[in-house]
Every structure is written in C-alpha cells, then in structure tokens.
Please model this.
Amino acid sequence: MTHELTDLANQVSQTLGAKKLMLATAESCTGGGIAQALTDIPGSSDWFDRGFVTYSNTAKNDMLDVSDAVIAQFGAVSEEVAAAMAAGAVANSSADVAVSTTGIAGPSGGVPGKPIGTVCFGWARGDHVQTERLVFQGDRQAVRGQAVAHALRGLLRLVE
Model:
C-alpha cells in the first residue's frame, strides 16, 4: 500500500472511530481495494462492518438492491448506479456510512462518453448520498489505485 493510501486509511480510521460510525464498502472496479486499505489498519473491526465486491450486475442487484431498471437506463458505470450501490450498502449492513465505486479500469471496456479510466463514486450517510464521476489516467493498476485514494478522500469529507 502506498504511503498516501496508508495516511488516508489512518485518517478515515481515526475519524470513524471518534464519531462511532460503522462503514460498509460497495466496490466494483476497485475489487475490494478500499476494504483492503481500511482493514489493513489495526482496530478496524471497531468501525468496519463489511465490504461488498459486486463486480457483476447480478451481484449489484442481489447484494445491494440496485435495480435492473437503473442499470439498464444509465449503465453499470454511472453516478446513478454508484448512488444505488452506496445506499444499498447502508441498507444491507449495520453501517452508518458507505462508499461505492463502479468504473472502467481497462485496458479495454471504454465506450463513447465513458472512456477507460471512468470511475463513478457514491458516498452515503444515512439517507443522504453524494456522487461524483471522474476519469483517471494510467494503466489498470493506476486507475484502481487513484480510485481507492479518491474514495477515501471523499469518505473523509463525508464524515468530518
């Protein structure tokens, strides 16, 4: 884990612990990277409830209650699906807050309007959900690493 990810994960740990908030993650393109970064922190069981790795649309539907209609209308890589994933993570766990990612890490899969490197994020706290869509540069590993770091930064903004 990079120094930046370790620092971000430690900040998230301290903030969630101090505020007595439980977290769930809902990841597609990051493949559990957010959960790994956070659970590398000793004592994370005090504030980390669970992680969902929902790579397929079926998994998003089954585990997070993301509707087939939302996926069909907006595509799996969309802010709408990221929002539904984050909300579904809160609803299907004991968490107070959640973070989600869905995107195209590459090296293939890009389409017009959604190039390789596109990642949509969702952050939920109770019923409030924020989303963001970014396009990162680099290879698959670089896109995923940047997405994990951005997800953690957004999580800090949500809970601070």
